[in-house]
């Protein structure tokens, strides 16, 4: 507890070995004030005593009960190892009833739902758990006229977050609406969880709950991008095959020919296997390094967040490239030509391997 106190107020200094008395300065409304804090032997902040100058006392007039409640919250959040971070405060201190109402709402909602609250009581995070046990959080940024003014809410979701608010609404109303939203998306996340568990996902590298796209490895330099609809996750997703044309074309033909076999009662992954008549490599059968082939130009696998997604069409070559790298390469060749959104030119590998060749990049 004492360490947390010093971390949040670095201008306070312990005056005794037991760290029960602190003296120093705090900033209020962009002014520094002298403050002394006396802690009981058990270091519990909720029983701390504050000693300050008359100017600070005047500023805190009518806030005594609020300060005590804030110390209780600080003690609670420190014990739960929750984050308390200093952020730029408001230009003026909200009235006492703002803090009283906020603390009451947190107590009514339940302390176990609170993940984070900043030192200004302006921003907080609430946690929620859906029926499948997935953990979610919603960030709530309060306005100085709260609850008369609706707070700003944000969350890691694949759909827009819409929270209905009135002047009588509370944090409990936000939490209950958020629970309904994440529960409605449970099937969507179940589809993606199965894909993440049973296939090698190339992109995104670290999927979030808001990501609805997965690029799945099919083989060496061959993959498919699936865009799952959050509202209709069991339906046929948007598909984009990536790889050399001589490999991708047969797969695309099977996908188009067997699309009518799609069964909404089966999982998306099983449907993709049946429709394309393939088995996806999985962590149980393959190493991911088998599909992490570096770019033939920059010799790296990841370029910022991008991975190689352009492949030479010559079956004797099949070297992958980053789109950005290949575009720069082709743009520098006097023999390259452009047709609409395609650039044609010599593959930097084929000239070495086969003595000929053509590569294509979408720009």
From TrEMBL:
Which GO biological process entries does UniProt record here?
interstrand cross-link repair; protein monoubiquitination
Keyword hit for Nucleus:
yes
Electron transport in keyword set: no
Pathway(s) it belongs to: Protein modification; protein ubiquitination
Any idea which UniProt keywords this protein has?
Cytoplasm, DNA damage, DNA repair, Metal-binding, Nucleus, Transferase, Ubl conjugation, Ubl conjugation pathway, Zinc, Zinc-finger
Q: Which reaction is the catalytic activity of this chain?
A: S-ubiquitinyl-[E2 ubiquitin-conjugating enzyme]-L-cysteine + [acceptor protein]-L-lysine = [E2 ubiquitin-conjugating enzyme]-L-cysteine + N(6)-ubiquitinyl-[acceptor protein]-L-lysine
The stretch of residues making up the signal peptide is none
Q: Give the highest taxon in the source lineage.
A: Eukaryota
- Give one GO molecular function term: zinc ion binding
Q: Where in the cell is it found?
A: Cytoplasm; Nucleus
Q: What is this protein called?
A: E3 ubiquitin-protein ligase FANCL
């Amino acid at each position: 507890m004492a360490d947390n106190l010093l971390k949040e107020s670095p201008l306070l200094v312990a005056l005794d070995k037991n760290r029960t008395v602190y003296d120093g300065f705090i900033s209020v409304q962009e002014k520094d004030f002298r403050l002394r804090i006396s802690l009981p032997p058990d270091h519990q902040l909720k029983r701390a005593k504050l000693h300050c100058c008359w100017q600070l006392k005047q500023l805190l007039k009518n806030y005594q009960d609020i300060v005590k409640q804030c110390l209780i919250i600080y003690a609670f959040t420190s014990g739960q190892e929750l984050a308390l971070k200093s952020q730029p405060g408001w230009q003026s201190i909200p009235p006492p009833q703002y803090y009283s109402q906020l603390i009451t709402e947190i107590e009514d909602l339940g302390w176990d739902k609170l993940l984070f609250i900043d030192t200004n009581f302006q921003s907080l995070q609430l946690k929620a758990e859906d029926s499948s046990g997935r953990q979610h959080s919603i960030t709530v940024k309060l306005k100085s006229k709260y609850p008369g003014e609706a707070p700003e809410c944000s969350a890691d979701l694949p759909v827009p977050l819409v929270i209905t608010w009135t002047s009588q609404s509370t944090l409990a109303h936000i939490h209950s609406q958020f629970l309904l939203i994440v529960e409605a998306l449970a099937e969507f996340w179940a589809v993606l969880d199965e894909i993440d568990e049973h296939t090698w996902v190339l992109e995104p590298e670290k999927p979030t709950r808001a990501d609805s796209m997965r690029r799945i490895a099919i083989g060496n330099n061959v993959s498919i991008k699936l865009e799952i609809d959050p509202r209709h996750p069991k339906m046929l997703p948007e598909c984009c095959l990536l790889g050399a044309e001589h490999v991708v074309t047969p797969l695309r033909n099977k996908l188009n020919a067997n699309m009518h076999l799609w069964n909404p009662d089966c999982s998306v992954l099983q449907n993709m296997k049946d429709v394309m008549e393939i088995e996806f490599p999985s962590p149980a059968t393959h190493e991911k390094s088998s599909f992490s082939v570096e770019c033939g130009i920059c010799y790296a696998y990841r370029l910022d967040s991008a991975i190689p997604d352009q492949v030479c069409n010559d079956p004797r070559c099949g070297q992958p490239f980053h789109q950005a790298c290949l575009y720069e390469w082709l743009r520098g060749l006097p023999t390259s030509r452009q047709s609409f959104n395609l650039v044609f030119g010599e593959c930097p590998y084929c000239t070495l391997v086969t003595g000929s060749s053509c590569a294509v990049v979408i720009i």
